[in-house]
Amino acid sequence: MPIVLKYLITFIIGMVPIIELRGAIPIGVGMGLSYFEAFICSFLGNIIPIYFIVKFIRPLFDFFGRWKPFKVIIDWATNKATKKIEENERLQTYTALALFLFVAIPIPGTGAWVGSLIANFLNLPPKKAIPPIVAGVLTAGIIVLAVTAATYGGIQYIFSH
C-alpha cells in the first residue's frame, strides 16, 4: 500500500467520531507508519472537525429541530446539558480545565467531537473552546501513543523470544 494512502486512511480515521485518534494511532502503526507519522496524521484528522462543530452545530440543530423526531432528541440533550451546567458553579468557573480533562481522557465518548458539542452547549465561543479541546486531543494522543508503543513493543518482544 502506498505511504500516502496510509497517511490518508490514518487521517480520515482520526476524523471519525468516537474512534478519533484513539483508534487511528494504533491502526496507522499497524499499517506500518512510524509512531510519529501515525500520531501526526491522527492528530491533524482529529482536530480539523473541532472548529466546525463548535461554530456550526447550533445552526444544524436549529435546521433539524424543525422535524419532530430530531427536535425531541435535540431538546432533550440541550436541556439536560444546560441544566447540569447551570446547577454546577464549579463547571462554570473551571470550564476550560473541565473541557481539557474530558477530552484528554482517552476512552470512547470523551474525544474532540463530544468535547466540541459540550463547548457548544456551554455557548463557548471558538476562541475559548478550541484551545482546551486541542490540548486535550494532544494529551490523549500522547497517552494513546505510549500505550500503542508499549503494546506493539511487548508483542514484538514476545514473538522474538
Can you describe this structure in just a few lines?
The protein is mainly α. Helix content is 83%, strand content 0%. The chain starts with a helix and ends with a helix.
Description:
The chain is mostly helical. It is 83% helix and 0% strand. It is built from eight helices and no strands. The protein has helices at 3-15, 20-30, 35-64, 68-87, 89-93, 95-104, 112-121, 126-160. α1 packs across α3, α3 (35-64) crosses α8 and α6 packs parallel to α8. The two termini are 29 Å apart. The model has no long low-confidence stretch (mean pLDDT 88).
Write the layout of secondary structure elements.
Elements: H1 3-15, H2 20-30, H3 35-64, H4 68-87, H5 89-93, H6 95-104, H7 112-121, H8 126-160
Helix pairs in contact: 1-2, 1-3, 2-3, 2-8, 3-7, 3-8, 6-7, 6-8, 7-8
- What percentage of amino acids are in beta strands? under 5%
Mean pLDDT: 88
The coarse overall form would be elongated
Number of helices: 8
- Using only CA atoms, what is the Rg? 18 Å
Q: Would you report the number of β strands?
A: 0
* Series of H and E elements: HHHHHHHH
Q: What does the largest sheet look like?
A: none
Name the helicity range.
Answer: over 70%
In whole angstroms, how far apart are the ends?
Answer: 29 Å
Low-confidence parts lasting 5 or more residues at pLDDT below 50? none
